[in-house]
User: What shape does this take?
Amino acid sequence: MFGTTLLLSFREIRRHLMRSFLTTLGIIIGVAAVITMVSLGRSVTVDIEEQISSLGSNMFFVFPIQGERGQFRPFDEQDVVAVREQIAGVQSVAGQVEANVVAIYNGQDWETKVEGVNNEFLDARGIKLDEGRLFTEAEMAAGGNVCIIGPTVRDEIFLPNESPLGERMRLNNVSCQVIGQFATRGSVGGGGDDDNAVFMPLTNVQRRFTGNDNIGYMAVSYDSAYDSSTMTSALVDLLRERRVLLDGQANDFDIVDTAAINETVQGTVGTLTLMVAAIAAISLVVGGVGIMNIMLVSVTERTREIGIRLAIGALAREVQLQFLTEAVVLCCFGGLMGMLLGFGLSYGLAGALGFTFVFDPAINILAFVVSALIGIVFGYFPARRASQLDPIEALRHE
Assistant: This one.
């Protein structure tokens, strides 16, 4: 019986094809809007997670900031040693200092920055090499004139098919030998190009470019088994003690936890996505009202047909099932069309906005199921009304 009912439903929908399509338009738009909003939200979340992970997972970044009296006190190597030795859970800690320079090679020049680091810093930040090697212990200790360049620097001053390894280039007036190229880090940290950089041993940059022993910031990687808030508190206490800050004085340093940032961003984007999806889902309700309206019109148009069916022995529940099936089929058709439209919109918008497209099967299935439920909910009243018609009165209907 259900198969016959389904075939009758398709026949009735095909008889009024344009009207059926316009009726399901609300469902199509609603499903497409929900899928598009959720998919874009997931895409934004994935891109932000990738940018944060490029900074390093389970990382603290400790920056000196201006104190209450307007003083700015940078860190030094002793602060790095103290954090390494006195904070439980620290896996590695390294200082970094940088300066703006002009990279020159074979008559080509390019504005970039030189970062004074060591191998521990590269390990903490999760920076890998595409080719070449890291610094040796002797090079780090003596501040050797060796460097590791970024992909942007290579593209700008070296020939496409030329290996930079072993070549000597200049950073301002300082000559250095290229020993490696690090893998792309992308654009993080205020939208700048982090691939436009050159790494040199920390002591070399301090001696040749900054002229002092100051540390720009500390990168601290920690064991994920340790509670980050507890470690943050211990780090604050240690640095306040070392910087002789009295009770009541504000910190003259700032601590950024990448794990906390990632968690906050996920929560915020997730909440916004749900809010926008909920607003978009209102059109599903509007589409359901449209389904109810057209089914009531259909009941009125087919009153005589319903009377004939009831008069020759059709049961009321069979008439109800037919009209309910028509409503569900309409909504399922709208759900399928909405899924296709939502996929196309989310894919196109993600590409246009520069996000990574993320296909979520769960939200697509959920949207389709909801569209079918809307057919049941909003199709029940018209179907019930059709099944309760009096056969004699229905046969008199013109």
Residues 74-242 form one domain. The beta strands are 59-64, 90-105, 108-117, 129-132, 146-149, 168-171, 174-182, 198-201, 217-222, 253-257. The longest strand covers residues 90-105. The mean pLDDT is 83.
